[in-house]
Write a structure and sequence with these properties.
266 residues; alpha+beta; GCC-box Binding Domain; 3 domains; three-stranded antiparallel sheet; elongated
Length: 266
């Protein structure tokens, strides 16, 4: 066998080749290949990455033919910081980068290093998510941003960089379903709206929590009226159960909305 290569057998009995490299006290798998020659070239590329300090994440792609880009990032980080991660993380000063092939460089605070070193970020239809305990979770959920949130409306990036997921860069505008912050009025407020065959304004409130309760009450009324829609309810953290009940009771749904529901149920 060529250096860095060993032969393996699939369940169906067919032969393939695996490449690996042992360096800096770490034995690292480089991937599977259809031929011994390709596996050996992958080994040589890995060896070159460790030897050449001028290769960095920005010019890495031009030095790869057999290794995956993500594997190359992993090796560069191990070379430069003596730390091996199974995910394509490259450490920076005060933060780290996660390189997602075909998408770009994502930036995260070091507080998230342990999580993303053990959870691979995946991309589907433009959405970034991880698999955790058999479930798919959007990476925005770590900031309290819901799956239905819209960039620019419900959250925004302070420095304008949508690839920068450091906590100081994430500004949550609307964290509850059916609630929108309106700063165009003389007195800015949080508006609760529900969409049922058209949009109904439920009310304007000084806090997003109160608006979220109002939306929930509107949902309850729609459900009681027999509207067959799978509404999303808000889980409001700001209130104790008693406080929630008091706010819920104090909210009066608008006459126009109640009239519409009565016309549906009658």
């Amino acid at each position: 066998m060529l250096k860095g290569v060993y032969q393996a057998t699939k369940k169906d009995g067919s032969i393939y080749y695996r490449a690996s490299i042992t360096t800096m006290g770490k034995h690292i798998s480089l991937g599977s290949f259809s031929t011994e020659k390709k596996a050996h070239h992958a080994y040589l590329e890995a060896e070159r990455l460790y030897r050449r300090g001028d290769i960095d994440p920005l010019n890495l792609r031009s030095h790869l033919k057999y290794l995956s880009f993500e594997k190359g990032i992993i090796l560069l980080n191990h070379r430069d910081y003596k730390t091996y991660f199974k995910t394509p993380i490259y450490l920076r000063s005060g933060y780290f980068s996660y390189f997602l092939d075909g998408f770009g460089e994502l930036k995260f605070d070091n507080d998230d290093l342990f999580y993303y070193s053990s959870h691979r970020i995946l991309l589907h239809d433009g959405h970034l998510y991880v698999n955790d305990y058999g479930m798919q979770y959007g990476i925005l959920a770590r900031y309290g941003i819901k799956n239905f949130a819209v960039a620019g409306k419900d959250y925004t990036f302070a420095n304008g960089d949508p690839m920068d997921y450091r906590y100081s860069n994430i500004i949550v505008i609307n964290k509850y379903h059916g609630v929108t912050y309106n700063d165009k009025r003389e007195v800015p407020c949080h508006e609760a709206r529900i969409h049922i065959n058209g949009e109904y304004l439920i009310g304007r409130f000084s806090t997003d929590a109160e608006a979220a309760v109002a939306y929930n009450k509107a949902v309850d009324a729609a459900t009681e009226a027999g509207i067959p829609k799978n509404f999303i309810q808000n889980y409001v953290l700001e209130y104790t159960p008693k406080e929630y009940a008091d706010v819920y009771t104090s909210i009066n749904l608008p006459f126009k909305y109640i009239s519409y529901l009565n016309s549906i149920s009658s």
